[in-house]
Amino acid sequence: MKPLLSIILLPLLLVGCSQTVDERADEYVDLSFTLCGAKVKTYSQGDDGKIRVICENDSYFLVKDKETLAYMNELNGAYCYGKGFSVFNERSNYYTFTCKDEKSFNIPK
């Protein structure tokens, strides 16, 4: 009886605690929309793990991973006052970005 109960409850537990791929993608596209300050034209994650976003207003950014995308949100609030980026690039030792108001920054990692 115990093994049968485990077989029934385990999938229910896993389904209840995890998000679908589509839900996670929606979250990242929503975050990308905030960082663009416009609609997202293209959002993709390559085999190399890098996330590429092109915004409808032709701004773009390329980041290494989802953690950097989340950190970008903090940088957007602190340096761009939540208006978004024109350009954002992640380098090996620092982030280079230009806010919508044309202010440029190089922030060490």
UniProtKB/TrEMBL annotation:
**Record flagged with keyword Signal:** yes
Record PROSITE patterns: PROKAR_LIPOPROTEIN
Q: Which UniProt keywords apply?
A: Signal
- Top-level lineage group: Bacteria
Q: Where is the signal peptide?
A: 1-20
- What is the designated name of this protein? Lipoprotein
Source species, please? Photobacterium proteolyticum
- Tell me the classification of the organism that encodes this protein: Bacteria, Pseudomonadati, Pseudomonadota, Gammaproteobacteria, Vibrionales
